Amino acid sequence: MRSALAGSPREIVGADIEVPVVTGGTRRYVNLDVAASAPALRTVADGVAEVLPWYASVHRGAGFKSRVSTELYERAREAIRAFVGGRPDDAVVITRNTTDAINLLASALPERTTVLVFAVEHHANMLPWRHGTHHGRVRYLPVPASPDDLVAQLDAALREERAGGMAPDGTERAGRGPILVSTTGASNVTGEIWPLGRISETAHAHGARFMVDAAQLAPHLPVDMARDGIDYLAMSGHKLYAPYGAGALVGRHDWLEETEPFLWGGGAVRFVTLDDVMWAPLPDRQEAGSPNVLGAVAMGIACETLAGIGMESIAAEELAMHAHAVGRLSAIPGVRVHLTWGLDQPHIGLVTFAVDGYDHGEVASILSAEHAIGVRHGCFCAHPLMLHLLHMDDGSAAAIREALRAGESPALPGAVRMSFGLATTEADIDAVADALASIAADGPGWTYAVSPATGEWEPDPDPRPWPALPLAAAPVGPAGAHLLRATAGEAS
Ligand SMILES: Cc1ncc(COP(=O)(O)O)c(C=O)c1O
What we know:
Blueprint: E1 18-20, E2 26-28, E3 30-31, H1 42-51, H2 64-83, E4 91-95, H3 98-107, E5 113-118, E6 136-141, H4 147-163, E7 179-184, H5 196-205, E8 209-213, H6 225-228, E9 232-236, E10 247-251, H7 253-258, E11 269-273, E12 276-279, H8 293-309, H9 311-330, E13 335-338, E14 350-355, H10 360-371, E15 373-374, E16 376-378, H11 383-389, H12 394-405, E17 415-419, H13 426-442, E18 448-450, E19 457-459, H14 478-491
Parallel strand pairs: 3-15, 5-6, 5-7, 7-8, 8-9
Antiparallel strand pairs: 1-2, 4-10, 9-10, 11-12, 13-14, 14-17, 16-17, 18-19
Helix pairs in contact: 1-8, 2-8, 4-5, 9-13, 10-13
The protein binds pyridoxal-5'-phosphate (PLP).
């Protein structure tokens, strides 16, 4: 079957792929794990294929292909800047992903910087700020009960930080050092869209800078750094339908320029002697090593394609699908949707839920094995927020940590998340709702067990054959071992 989107700018590579199910035969794969990593846009895959024959070294290559590749790389940078509404003098540094981008900014903070972060963040926007190599201090603020609470908490914390002295967490405030407020643009756990304009106003009113983790924002909503007063923005190509290994940090150039590079090596320098190094200006200064030209090009094409489709309409469609999904799921006895702020707040297309009586991993495994539905489960790299949503106190968290330290395998808390993208339809959401209703009412239609090899819930047995793909015969870790065994059996 040819996808309804074939030939349109929204066409997704692999949207029609059928996957095996344990009960026999195949079904169209329903990809509802787009927030983790989005499939490639057709424009992106075709664009990369078109550019590939022209691929050559960038920057110092004098050959014609090098000139072409260099130009494409720089055009990609500008496409990314335009897509997020970056200012003309903002640095656009091509990184590996959002994590890399935030670590880069963390490494460039001036001495005595204080970073204010809410406890809802993805670990990518939580851990780099406490990394030993950066020059600041991070202060975590509690999960806000509402956008108004968020702004009030932030305002109070900024006032306290400006005043100096001891912080409530017992650490010495940085006093007159710079302050950076770093928040997500949209939650990867609950889908809530954060009030960026209000956060920016509050931060700037206290002389702080504002950084947005746009991993979940950029693919789903229009972003305008200049309009919304966003000083820094981090994003990932693989969440933007360009899974070719590039990301970006866009923002004010001074901190990134006044510090030593995050990575040291070729490309980041102007002149080197055995006892000295003269660093290059931005963006080269923060792009040491050979850059990911094709990844940047893929990301640039994705930005242009999404802008052409219209981010406003993508956001409106996702909001409608979110309401549909929450409506369907909430009507199923035993299914509970996790939200921080409630449905009156805008959301991206992402819903996290629990099914009473089932481990989150088991639900995800059933959806995959019997219904060909791909979702994500666990804590979504946001442990503190999940502990909050699951009402787990410090004692329970400590007990899990201690059990892990003792080498035990405690059941880890978590939930199931479905997340939507350009190709998601209401029928996809209905497929999940119908499957959950049947699980809640009648239980699974297959047997499942926690695999001792992976610690994950898996169908037992798992008769699904492995697709014939490159590297399929290569040795892999335990997660794929049973699939390879199944393939070998089928082929013989
Ligand atoms: C909100 C958020 N921030 C940061 C990240 C990290 O992105 P990456 O793994 O591409 O660095 C993710 C990934 O899921 C995310 O959802």
